[in-house]
Amino acid sequence: MKEYLLDVAVEYQLGFQDAATPVMESIENFHNYVFVYMSLIFAVVSYMLSNILLKFNSEKRQISHKYLIHGTQIELV
Predict the structure, then answer these.
(1) Could you list the mean pLDDT of each consecutive 10-residue stretch along the chain, which spans 77 residues?
(2) Which of 33, 41, 63, 76 would suit a FRET pair with 15, their CA atoms being 20 to 30 Å apart?
């Protein structure tokens, strides 16, 4: 018998067991939808953070002044 057809947890299983009730199926679907949106948000935030770190590097700019980028940290938060 194949392991993925069992209704119990197996060793090193990633994910939920097979749902026994419609409520648990709804919880699994909700989990999947939230995970997709969280992944998209994580990707966008990572992209924005990497751009900020690369473009606002003080070593790349020829003119670096402490008041030139005043308040950018609080604006990012």
Answers:
(1) 62 79 91 95 95 76 61 63
(2) 41
Q: Are 7 and 18 in contact (CB under 8 A)?
A: yes
Give the pLDDT of residue 12. Answer: 81
19 exposure class (CB count in 10 Å sphere: 0-12, 13-18, 19+) = middle
Q: How far is CA 17 from CA 8, 59, 62, in A?
A: 6, 52, 58
Q: How far apart are CA 38 and CA 41, in angstroms?
A: 5
Contact 20, 29 (CB under 8 A): no
pTM of the model: 0.58
Q: Helix or strand or coil: residue 9?
A: coil
